[in-house]
């Protein structure tokens, strides 16, 4: 599966916020979820919206309350992704 440059950059930024001991595991999980989502959407390239959706899905429910703050640090609008 191909990733556009912006999607790779966003994943890298997300990973830089992730504690080092679990960074590799999170990268693998987000990549897998993003690529599966892209395939289900019928596209051959992963974009930034798909990365954000995969990040949300890959984050344990107990930690999702932190995502809006993390998204804002990355310049993302959490409201676009269902956070209120």
Q: Can you characterise this structure?
A:
- This protein has 84 residues and is mainly alpha-helical.
- The protein has one domain (2-81).
- Helix content is 61%, strand content 5%.
- The chain has 4 helices and 2 strands.
- The chain has helices spanning 5-16, 20-40, 48-58, 67-73; strands spanning 2-3, 45-46.
- A two-stranded parallel ribbon has the order 1-2.
- α1 runs parallel beside α3 (48-58) and α2 (20-40) crosses α3.
- The longest helix is centred in the middle third of the chain and has 21 residues, at 20-40.
- It is globular and about 30 Å long.
- The model has no long low-confidence stretch (mean pLDDT 95).
Task: Show unreliable segments.
Answer: none
Order of helix and strand elements from N to C terminus: EHHEHH
Distance between the termini: 32 Å
Question: What does the main sheet amount to?
Answer: 2 strands, parallel
Helix-strand category: mainly alpha
- Give the spatial strand order of the biggest sheet: 1-2
C-alpha Rg, in Å?
12 Å
What would the principal axes of the Cα set say about the shape? globular
Considering DSSP H and I runs of 4 or more, what fraction of the residues is helical?
Answer: 55-70%
How much beta, percentage-wise?
under 5%
What's the β-strand tally? 2
Number of domains: 1
The number of distinct helices, counting runs of at least 4 residues, comes to 4
């Amino acid at each position: 599966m191909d990733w556009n440059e912006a999607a790779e950059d966003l994943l890298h930024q997300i990973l830089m916020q992730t504690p080092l001991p679990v960074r590799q595991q999170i990268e693998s999980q987000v990549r897998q979820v993003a690529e599966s989502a892209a395939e289900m959407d019928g596209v051959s390239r992963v974009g930034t919206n798909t990365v954000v959706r995969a990040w949300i899905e890959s984050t344990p429910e107990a930690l999702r309350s932190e995502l809006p703050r993390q998204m804002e640090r990355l310049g993302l609008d959490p409201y676009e992704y269902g956070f209120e």
